[in-house]
């Protein structure tokens, strides 16, 4: 029986899809399909989660002979139980975490929830302010199966999550990738990742970010597509690709006007998280505390 020996834990919207794709192209590495089986996320009610061990291990049936075998479920880092469950299943596991400015993570994750049909509030500040009510299970959009998926603050507390992770594993078993490093020099970042996983150096094509960020033209249509997709899977109807084509037609560019005052609020809100990351990872992240000035700014992300 072949078990995974490395896990990309998250965070979401931090380049994990690109990293998993890179590794899947390496002749000595195997990445599960789907890349996010979500098996160890048992504390979250997630769609399409593989919930039994036999089904999970079938994902790795053809992985024999590979040096690095893994998966990339981005909800593991924020989960309370995923890492302990992984360590019980594979005590010698190695871990990869991708990080970015938590303020940028919030905007990107909010846009992703809109695209998925899980979020009904198009304005980022309104979605941020709605968290208190939503974490209590109130005002949850019909397309969202788990209220915690809309708890953006929890997702973005990267310092807290990393601190918890490093209380459970030794630092040499963890490799951290920052999204700016992927953008600045993807090949160097990839070489370091290969070294960490014990893989031979392997050349990358030019880095092209995956999962570029977009938002729906119609939130109602996005939510209807979400619900219909879940229902079809539950009754066992095969995917025909029609919903995906409609979903793509329903997307538009995701430049969102961000008021500097709101961004400043978020920068201050996450300041302690950034400080915690600097201490844990011995890296200067002072540029994450910068607040852009001027009128409402279009928010764009280089990787989403």
Automatic annotation (TrEMBL):
Gene Ontology terms for molecular function: sulfotransferase activity
Lineage top rank: taxon: Bacteria
InterPro entries the UniProt entry points to: NST/OST (IPR037359), P-loop_NTPase (IPR027417), Sulfotransferase_dom (IPR000863)
This protein's UniProt keywords: Glycoprotein, Transferase
Keyword Glycoprotein found: yes
Domain Sulfotransferase: 4-200
KW rRNA-binding (keyword) present: no
Gene3D superfamilies xrefs: P-loop containing nucleotide triphosphate hydrolases
PANTHER family in the record: BIFUNCTIONAL HEPARAN SULFATE N-DEACETYLASE_N-SULFOTRANSFERASE (PTHR10605:SF56), HEPARAN SULFATE SULFOTRANSFERASE (PTHR10605)
UniProt protein name: Sulfotransferase
């Amino acid at each position: 029986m072949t078990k995974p020996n490395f896990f990309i834990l998250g965070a979401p919207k931090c380049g994990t899809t690109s990293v998993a794709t890179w590794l899947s192209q390496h002749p000595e590495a195997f990445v599960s399909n789907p890349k996010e089986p979500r098996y160890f996320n048992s504390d979250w009610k997630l769609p399409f989660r593989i919930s039994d061990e036999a089904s999970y291990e079938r994902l790795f049936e053809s992985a024999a002979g590979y040096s690095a075998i893994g998966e990339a479920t981005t909800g593991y880092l924020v989960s309370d139980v995923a890492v302990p469950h992984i360590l019980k299943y594979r005590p010698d596991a190695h871990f990869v975490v991708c990080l970015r400015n938590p303020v940028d993570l919030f905007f990107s994750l909010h846009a992703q929830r809109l695209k998925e049909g899980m979020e009904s509030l198009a304005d980022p500040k309104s979605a941020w302010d709605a968290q208190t009510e939503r974490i209590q299970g109130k005002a949850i959009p019909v397309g969202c199966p788990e209220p915690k998926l809309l708890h953006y603050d929890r997702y973005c507390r990267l310092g807290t999550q990393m601190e918890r992770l490093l209380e459970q594993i030794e630092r040499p078993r963890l490799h951290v990738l920052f999204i700016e490093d992927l953008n600045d020099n993807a090949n160097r970042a990839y070489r370091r990742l290969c070294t960490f996983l014990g893989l031979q150096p392997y050349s990358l094509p030019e880095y092209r970010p995956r999962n570029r960020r977009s938002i729906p033209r119609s939130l109602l249509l996005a939510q209807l597509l979400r619900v219909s997709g879940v229902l079809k899977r539950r009754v066992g109807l095969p995917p025909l690709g029609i919903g995906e084509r409609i979903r793509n037609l329903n997307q538009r560019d995701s430049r969102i006007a961000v008021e500097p005052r709101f961004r400043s609020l978020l920068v201050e809100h996450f300041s302690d998280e950034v400080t915690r990351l600097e201490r844990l990872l011995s890296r200067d992240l002072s540029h994450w505390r910068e607040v852009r000035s001027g009128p409402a700014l279009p928010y764009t992300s280089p990787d989403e």
